[in-house]
Amino acid sequence: MTELVLTESDQALLNGESGEGAAVAMRVVTAVARSMGAPRLVDIESAHVDGCFYVGPVSIDYARVLVEGDARVRVPTTLNVGPIDQRHPERWSGTSQAATNARTVMGLYEKLGCQTTWTCAPYLLRDRPRFGSQIAWGESNAIVFANSVLGARTQRYGDFVDVAAAVTGRAPFAGLHTDEGRSGELLIDVTGLSPSVIEHEAFFPVLGHIAGQWCGGRIPVVVGVDAATEDDLKAFGAATASTGAVALFHVVGVTPEAETAEMAFQGRAPVETIRVGVEDLRRGWSELSTRNDGLLSAVCLGTPHFSIAEFHQLASLLDGRSIHPRTPLYVNAGRWVYDSIVAQGVGSRLEEAGVQVVTDACTYNTPILDKMEGLVMTNSAKWAWYAPRQIGAEVLFAGLSACVESAIEGRVVSHAGF
Q: Do the domains spanning 8-180 and 289-409 agree at the CATH topology level?
């Protein structure tokens, strides 16, 4: 096994010369580095912390050890969603104790010096990682977007490792932090699909859903897509990281490390090639729904958090119409994006139409939705995949247009697939 070599400053942190909190963090980082076979640690430029979401007493205990040990983050560090929409605290149907626990852990991460962004999509903020920068990010969709679309470099860091890297400013130099660790492994060929299928508004989330199943933790290379927006890639990556453990993908001719297939595979041959047919997409679409009809309780959008462009698209689809009072339409969004669309005048238009914007949290993993007697529609493959397990929702997956029309009509309208 490769021996981990530490610098003098690494060893000083480990010895507690900057406080017990930093020493605990360095013990975590070095333990992870040794498990990865990393020869050394590398400086990081930013971190994104997923552990600020309360999952049990350990969430508070770990953060408290860092805070009481005088730890502070050494690099700009953003925070993932929390359990509570702090701007709309009335949107909470959980217990008072759960709310107290949530606020406690969120407050501890603020004391560590983290930025109170409360978003799963930190790549939508003004300051985002540059190409080639070394970072340590948690939250699966943020990780895959940073690696794939921005060309930054991070492993798929889990809770507690992410903040340990932020406190030390260091991460293991292994895996996706290295050139060789970023080579494509599996070829996903969509050249056999018609342009109308690839241009379908649900193509990217559905393709991501099935690609995650095929890939597991392997790095996919997609060929046959001529163009894609960042929102398309966001939806694709979030889905691959939900059904699989994908932390990096390449789209030939689209993403920055895949000008050609040869570049994406670093001159190697793919270990497997999958040619996607319409039947694969239809299977994926059907897997994202637990029911196909029935009473519509709500529509949930914004998983990952909505972008400014998506808000404009939503306003365009509403076209001055209002949401039906019995079928609320929720949109999850980060504070900065929400404040931006408010400044642009879009926020007031959506509010007047009855759209309920949820900040700081996400409707699939926290008790925000009212009692659900029917199904929930969504255009998010990630929301559709997790909500039945997390909040017991019955889900109907559809494109954005069908979701909006259904929210306006107060009933399920056409949701035909490919």
A: yes
Q: How many CB atoms lie within 10 A of CB 197?
A: 17
Instruction: Look at the block and give the residue holding tokens 């949107």.
Output: 91
Q: Angle, to 10 degrees, between the axis of helix 57-68 and the axis of helix 20-36?
A: 120
Domain 8-180 is in which class? Answer: alpha beta
Question: Distance of CA 145 to CAs 27, 350, 374, 414, Å?
Answer: 28, 27, 33, 31
DSSP assignment of 114-171: -B----S-GGGSSS-PPTT-B-EE-SHHHHHHIIIII--B-----TTHHHHHHHHTEE
Burial class (CB in 10 A: 0-12, 13-18, 19+), 384: buried
The two three-digit tokens of residue 323, written as one number: 């949401």
Rounded Cα distance between 285 and 396, Å, is: 10
Ordered by start, the domain boundaries in the chain are 8-180, 183-286, 289-409
What average pLDDT is seen over the chain?
96
Q: Is the confidence at residue 1, as pLDDT, over 70?
A: no
Cβ neighbours of residue 349 closer than 8 Å, sequence gap 6 or more:
315, 318
The CATH architecture of the domain made up of 289-409 is 2-Layer Sandwich (3.30)
The residue that leads in pLDDT, 51 or 288, is 288
Best CA proximity match to 214, nearest among 194, 195, 239: 239
pTM: 0.97
Q: At what angle do helices 203-215 and 381-390 cross, to 10 degrees?
A: 60
DSSP state letter for 196: H
Give per-residue burial for 114-150: e unless 16+ CB within 10 Å, then b: bbbbbbbbbbbbeebbeeebbbbbbbbbbbbbbbbbb
pLDDT greater than 70 at residue 96: yes
pLDDT band at 305 (very low <50, low <70, confident <90, very high): very high
Q: Which of 180, 240, 183 is nearest to 213 (CA)?
A: 240
CB of 220 within 8 A of CB of 119?
Answer: no
Per DSSP, the three-state class of 221 is strand
| Cα–Cα distance for residue pair 173/87, rounded to 1 Å | 39
| 92-101, 116-125, 250-259: least confident range | 92-101
DSSP readout, 66-77?
HHHTT---SS-E
Question: Half-sphere exposure (CA, 13 Å, Cβ side) for 237?
Answer: 30
- CA dist 13 to 73, 129, 140, 294, Å? 13, 26, 28, 58
pLDDT, one tens digit per residue, over 240-254 is: 999 999 999 999 999
How far apart are the C-alpha atoms of 211 and 291, rounded to whole Å? 23
